Every structure is written in structure tokens, then in C-alpha cells.
Amino acid sequence: MRPFTFIIISIFILSCNSNKMVLQENPPFEVTEASFQKWFGGTQEAGKGIHFNLSFSEISEDVIIQKIYFRGKEEILKQNPKNPNEYLATFIDKPKEDVVLDSNPVKEMDNPRPSLVSEIPFELKAIEAVIQYQKDNKVFYYKIENIPEKDEVAYPSSKPDDN
Fold this sequence. Notes:
Elements: H1 2-18, E1 23-24, E2 29-41, E3 48-59, E4 63-70, E5 73-76, E6 78-80, E7 83-93, E8 129-135, E9 138-144, E10 149-155
Parallel strand pairs: 1-9, 2-10
Antiparallel strand pairs: 2-3, 3-7, 4-5, 4-8, 6-7, 8-9
């Protein structure tokens, strides 16, 4: 009976550790450039956010770049069709919704419910990010530090054409 209990406890402990996200120190690629740039539209409806750019020296064919974790958010990295070693992610800040605050709770019933945003599984500084990539059907993570911020860019709204 004791060996059976020991085996069950060992399997449980090992399975708990297998879900841990370990950062890789020597990924199968080299990040040649990483930067981010805040942007905002000309109107409130246009929104605001952050563009995140990544460039790699070379990426082997068996590596798939998937996501980036940055400033408490995660986003899918999209490959530049003109340059396969460049990736971009756009983090969009959602505008705050108007809410009604009243002593009468009936008037507050139509307020939007808060979203349950899941937190990212990493503790990162404001100038750090983690890349999620896949190799040989296994998921790995690589941390980038000291990411420079480029000057903020504005996308002013254009005047509609009169037809």
C-alpha cells in the first residue's frame, strides 16, 4: 500500500510542476530590435494604444512566434508579409464606459459589467516583455529587457469627403 501512495503523490507533485512557465535563456532566434510606441487617434472613438515591434536576425523554420506579453496584457504577434523576420502587435486601450452612480440602485442596473480580465502569468517591468514561441510542438517563453520607447504618434482623423 505504501509504494502505491508514494507513486500517486509523486505523480501529483510532478504534474503541478509541469504547468510552470519557464523562461528560456538561449532561444533558437536572436532579437535584433524591440521597441514600442504609444499611439492615439484624433477622436475618442478612434482609441489609443501601443504598437510593439520585434525584429529577428533569423528564425528557423521549426519555430513559430505566437504571442507577446507586455504591460499586463497579451497579444498575438503578426508577421510582416514583406519581411518574415519582423513581427508587430497592437495593444488597444479600450475607452472607459460611462456609468451611472446613484443612491437608487435601480438607476445603476443598466451599467456595463466589469470585464474579468485574466492577468498574464509573468511579473514584468514596464520596459520588459515575454515572447511565446513554439518549437517541436512545445511552447517556450523568452524575456526581452530594456525595451526602448519611440516617440508617441498621433493619427488625426481626416475630414470626410463631400460627395
